[in-house]
Each structure stands twice: as C-alpha cells, then as structure tokens.
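BUG: 3D viewer hangs when loading the predicted structure for this chain

Environment: internal workstation, default settings.
Expected: structure renders.
Actual: progress bar stalls at 90%.

Input used:
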Amino acid sequence: MRTDWDLRSSKRIRSLVRTWRPDIVHAHDARSHAIALVALAGLATPLVVTRRVTFRPKSVRLKYGPNVSRFIAVSRAVEHAMVAAGISAARIDVVHSGVPTPVVTAPRDWRAERRWPADAVVVGVVGAMTAEKGIDTIARIAQALPSEQARRTKIVFLGGEAAGPIRFGEVEGFRAGFVTDIYNAMAGLDLLWHPAVSEGLGTSVIDALALGVPPIAFAVGGIPEIIDHKLQGLLVQANDVSAFAQAHGVALDAGFRRGLAERGPAQAALFSVDAMTEKTERVYQTVLTG
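Structure tokens produced before the viewer hung:
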C-alpha cells in the first residue's frame, strides 16, 4: 500500500473481498481506511475503521461519511478529537488498545552494564525517537534537574539508532537503539520518562506499568486514561519541563517509587488483549445486527 489512495491496492482488496466474502472489513490505520473505502465502493460489506491519533481528522465528508459503518477510537481523547471534527459520537466506540502481559526472563542490569553507581536511578525512554514523542524535550528536562539529582540520574534510550554514550549536562545517558528483548530491557529500569506531546493512548506506558516501572508523563491524549496521578505514576501538564523535572525529583524517593510500582500491574491488566478483543467483537456484533 504505497499511498492513501493507492488504486492498485484497492483493486486487489476488492478482488479479495469478492473471493472471501467477509462479513466485515476492518481498517486499522489511515492508509487502509482510504484504500478500503475505494475497494468497497458499491459493495454491501460493512467497513469498521480504527483511529489511533488525537489530531482532528481531515476530509471528514469524504473519509468519515456514511460509507464507514462504525468507528473505533483507541481512547476517549481520540474520540473527542473526532467529535470536534464533526463526526457523530453515536458512530464511535472507544476500545482501548490491548497489551500482552510482558514476560521477563532476565532483566537487564543497566548499572552493571554501564558501570553506573549503585545509587543511580535508571530512567528509560522507549519508542520512536521523534519530536512528536518528546525526544527533543529530554535534554531540557535533564538540564532542569538540580545538580545532585542530575548526577544520580542515568537515561537509557530504547529505540531508534544505537549511538552509545550520550550526555545532557550532568546527566549521563546511553542510546541502546532497537532491542529485541524489550521487556527484559524495560524491567531493568527504575522509571519511565514519557514526554510525548501527542499520544493516542500510549502502549509503552502500559508495558511499563505491567513491569512495575513507574512512568512520568505529560498529561496528553490518552495518557490520563492509563495513569492515576500519584497512584501508579506521575502526570505533568503538557510541555511543562520544569514540572516534569520536579516530578522526577519526587520519584527519586525509593519508597514512593516502590508504592507506584506495586500498583502498576493491576492497572495495566485493565488494558489486556482479552478486554480489547471482547470489546471489538461487540462492535462487530453491533454492525452486523444493526
């Protein structure tokens, strides 16, 4: 699928639909949404579309009209953006993304690997290293830390390119790049920093909760639907770097951090694959029964 309106792909999908005669076609992203609309033109097969981002949809009349039977939003924040764009809330179901229960075989010992001191607090930044995910904000947060806190804080970047040691003022870091044993890597963290400025839901935050790694995050998009402030993690007003640094200072307390960690797995269990599957099936049944 090369573009949103890839007619060649639409033709192939149309052929498959005619051959397989599915009860429903489910498009899971913007590109498949557009391609499916063309593929199903004139056919009776209903279309379900999942939307995962909090940007207001464009081309509402063209892409979000009656040819889509039902929409699934991965968070209430995504639903609100769709409604603000003019899509009826009656056509939208919220189904949070489900995350498999992490299996950890051997947690990474980042202190030993990097020869960091025993009292170091290891912070993880997980996922795509893009501006949208707040990677440019990491340096500003690190530089906002008081000197003593900065020396104790070590940052591990899990994602993007492996670039080795990195430094933000007094804060040491390590760019590990893409790792295949992501759960083992995350299980070795003390905290997760998630300074995304836009987030449909935030599945890496759910992973962290399941692993007992307390997250600190900007309260954007679907993040507040995952974290109860000061119960499983800490939420900070969007783009407030100073407040983020202050929250990190609070989380340096080992006892406070341990309490957050203990409550994380139960919260993560609310976002299970089984729950997502069951709710998605309900949407299908609604579409099929009218």
